[in-house]
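User: Hi! I'm working on a homework problem where we have to compare a predicted structure to a textbook description. Could you give me the structure for the chain below?
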Amino acid sequence: MSGPPAGAERVIVMNAYVDNNFLIDCINRDGWKNIAVKACESGKVKLVLSPWSIFEVGNAPQRHMEELVTLIDGLRPWWILERVDLQLREFIVAWNDFWNGKRSQFNPICTLAEVHSSFLRLPLEIVEKYSLRDFAGIWQRPEASGEADIEFRRQSTISSLNRIFYLGGKLTSRAVLEIRKRYVARQFVISRRIGLPHHERYQFENLILGARELETYISFFVEFGGMDEMLAHRVEECLTFNQWKTNAILNPNRQLDRFHAIAALP
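Assistant: Happy to help. Predicted structure tokens:
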């Protein structure tokens, strides 16, 4: 395999994850936008955004939303898979690598259309016709905030129930093992069935963990390092366990911060 020409400078490209606060500063602070544009044009920096940034942009007042959309279009960022897709994809890679005795590179950074194709489970050619403005505009609908609030409350309820179910948040080694096994079972369920109500998903997880052969494979995977390279999972697990040590409620703001952290920290 040939390398770069003799004397050629090797360019290292840095992926820089940015959130809504950065975008707002690019609008409100002198010089921030120009610095961001020059960094991107240099070819040494790729700005990366999460689909949750689209939710935040779409929740801004109409005029401010237009400012943010125009800014993002000008920066031409890349996009990272949404949290559920990110964790599912990294699990699939880790599971296959573990049993095949290899180590693969996992890259969750895609185009806007590719991220939405994965998230919506639609062919790429269908979502390519929609722009960032189209996706952000969905959250301008009167009923959109109620839909989001339902999902945030659902996540908060799941977190509270899990804290109670797993010994009130007391993390014995046995409890951690069971949490991780159920996480793996959940990935199998999500890979086959999208959008299930929580109680139905839980039932399928129980069926998987109740099947002796499958449970043996999952236990071996968990106990012998299969999850070591699942970085998005490790970030969420650490954040969850730290939250369980307190009485903090997983409100919408904390959930958004968590979703950003899961994408940014690995």
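For your comparison, note the following. The chain is about 65% helix and 5% strand. The radius of gyration is 21 Å. Good luck with the assignment!
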